[in-house]
Design goal:
By secondary structure, the chain is α+β, with helices and mostly antiparallel strands. The protein is 33% helix and 37% strand. The protein contains 2 helices and 5 strands, in the order βαββββα. The strands form 2 sheets. The protein has a 3-stranded antiparallel β-sheet. A two-stranded antiparallel sheet has the order 1-5. The radius of gyration is 10 Å and the shape is globular.
Length: 63
């Protein structure tokens, strides 16, 4: 199962995560509250398992 990248970015924004900077092939997002950072690939669709791992790294609820 996959998740659209825009929907996942909206989920991140709803949980106080924002774009920290652009990398060469990934974007780096940071949680404002916990200061945790992680990378987000620039694919149009993301695997649900990958989204769950990113949420865990940023310490926010899963989608």
């Amino acid at each position: 199962m996959s998740v659209k990248r825009n929907e996942f970015i909206q989920h991140l924004a709803n949980h106080n995560c924002y774009l920290h900077r652009h990398g060469s092939k990934h974007d780096i997002y940071q949680n404002q509250l916990s200061k945790k950072k992680t990378t987000l690939p620039r694919h149009p669709k993301l695997d649900k398992y990958l989204c769950d791992l990113i949420c865990k790294q940023l310490e926010i609820p899963k989608m």
